[in-house]
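Page 37, continued from 36.
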């Protein structure tokens, strides 16, 4: 229980000269108030005494924390009307270690963590910073898994499947988005309606993945200044600085960025995986058919998607496994725990000597 155990315990510092009775210990935080209360009840506090106290209030009080500190016995009294300041303890004792733990996790920010803990995000506003003499806005990026698929995969290259019967290609958006393109026997051609051979689907999906990975490893760099727009594969000795359209390191203040970043290739692989995820299609169909849903999927369409998902579970699972083979090699989905805890003072465990 929160009130049964003292939330803060402080040991009074020892006097520098015990023989001098006129010198008193220096009390910090809520110790001064508690020392006076303890002195009235049990005499003056002595060196080495431990005084427990609780910061009370509702988080909106303008009084400093030492003036809102009371002993646990006073807080536990029914007629006292005192309650621990939950916001103060979250902000001072919980938020700092959480912020340090999540500092190296991509997609998190101070404002986002403060909002998740129920704190006032205005106090943790770091959206303005000074960088190279110019103030720039820092974007607060939400977690990738919390972004809707139509927004997260908006820039991804669509999967085009070629029919071996009519020799035409058509874009496949998945079971939920295109239930008419799926039959109990597999994926259908959008032009002639013939069933595309599963082996052909696997080969075309793997070819699409290799095209995207080859594009990533080409390493094209582009300038983020719209007035320059230079595109090259050569990194200059100035690092990320753009050399300008004439290559003289002037007339441009932009920075070079990868045209196809790590985030882009990772989202591309996740997009290919989502096309063949029958469980995800089932969940979307159930949620869309629920009362009050914005998509308002009919019960007939819902049952059709659920039935097609079960018919193609093994077939789609084979294609999904091909994509996951490449996705497992992508290091973006893994968190480097050694780097994460390095700033906290933890080092790698040394391997035992052979």
């Amino acid at each position: 229980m929160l009130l049964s155990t003292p939330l803060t315990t402080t040991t009074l510092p020892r006097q520098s000269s015990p023989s001098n009775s006129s010198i008193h210990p220096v009390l910090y935080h809520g110790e001064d108030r508690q020392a006076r209360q303890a002195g009235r009840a049990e005499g003056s506090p002595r060196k080495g005494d431990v005084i427990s106290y609780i910061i009370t209030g509702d988080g909106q009080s303008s009084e400093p924390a030492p003036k809102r500190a009371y002993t646990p016995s006073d807080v536990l009294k029914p007629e006292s009307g005192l309650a621990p300041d939950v916001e103060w303890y979250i902000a001072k004792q919980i938020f700092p270690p959480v912020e340090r733990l999540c500092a190296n996790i991509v997609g998190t920010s101070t404002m986002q963590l403060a909002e998740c803990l129920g704190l006032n995000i205005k106090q943790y506003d770091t959206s303005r910073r000074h960088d190279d003499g110019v103030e720039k806005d820092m974007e607060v990026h939400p977690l990738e898994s919390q972004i809707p698929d139509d927004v997260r995969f908006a820039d991804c290259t669509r999967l085009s499947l070629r029919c071996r019967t009519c020799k035409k290609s058509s874009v496949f958006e998945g079971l939920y988005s295109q239930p008419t393109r799926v039959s109990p026997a597999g994926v259908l051609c959008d032009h002639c309606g013939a069933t595309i051979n599963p082996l052909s689907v696997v080969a075309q999906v793997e070819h699409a993945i290799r095209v995207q990975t080859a594009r990533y490893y080409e390493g094209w760099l582009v300038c983020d200044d719209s007035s320059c727009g230079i595109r090259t594969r050569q990194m200059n000795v100035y690092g990320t600085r753009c050399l300008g359209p004439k290559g003289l390191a002037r007339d441009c203040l932009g920075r070079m960025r990868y045209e196809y970043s790590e985030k882009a290739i990772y989202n591309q692989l996740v997009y290919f995986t989502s096309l063949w995820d029958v469980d995800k299609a089932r969940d979307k169909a159930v949620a869309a058919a629920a009362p009050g849903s914005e998509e308002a999927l009919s019960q007939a369409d819902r049952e059709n998607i659920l039935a097609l998902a079960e018919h193609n579970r093994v077939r789609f699972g084979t294609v999904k496994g091909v994509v996951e083979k490449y996705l497992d090699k992508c290091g973006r989905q893994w968190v480097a725990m050694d780097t994460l805890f390095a700033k906290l003072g933890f080092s790698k465990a040394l391997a035992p000597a052979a």
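Residues 145 and 177 are 19 Å apart (CA to CA). Flag for discussion at group meeting. The longest strand covers residues 50-55.
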